[in-house]
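Quick one: Probable queuosine precursor transporter from Segatella buccae ATCC 33574, structure tokens please.
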Amino acid sequence: MTKETKQVSVLFMLFSILFCVCLIAANVLETKQIQVGPFSFGRLVFPAISLTGGLIVFPVSYIINDCVCEVWGYGKARLLIWLGFAMNFFFVAVGALCDWIPGAAYWDNDAGFHAVFGLAPRIAAASFVAFLCGSFMNAYVMSRMKIASQGRNFSARAILSTVAGEGIDSVIFFPLALGGVVPADELPKLMLWQVVLKTVYEIIVLPVTIRVVHAVKAHEGEDVYDNGVNYNVMRIFSI
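--- reply ---
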């Protein structure tokens, strides 16, 4: 009996590792509140913006998602997203378990440890749901636009897929995680700023992303178009 084997390249494996590290690092960095601004441009003054440290690294996961979907197609991106979800869930679960176990008598940093690893169940659930929906939307838009444009306009596809993915992520996460905690009139502002700043992040690093995609395509000898692909998110190992 012949057994069908499905393989992934070393480069895809390295992208997957970086993707998982970015997601896990974002969870830890989210506990740090940072302030950006205020800014002034001539007579225009923009107020200070409060953000979380996760903004530094989380957008990188969307850039990797774009690269994987562009080079290897939606099937590999789907596998990558579920792999990232599983590793992130494992990290959060183990962190919560360790946070729950009583500390040693001489341990005096319970408050600090809890602040980093004691992610509230509501926030954790909102984060996981938002990540899955946003990441799959990003990959879907990237895949469909590549077919429609016949592989042209990578920059536009990368930016628009990020806007779609980050938009869904923010629309789901903030109401689920912070509804009733943050004033209702502030939630739309938070969601909008998250989408805007993460999209600006992608635009700034776009020249690097383009070079990486070209280099990976040349190295792998692949440039997949998802003609006839099944977009069912549960077909995890259909690569």
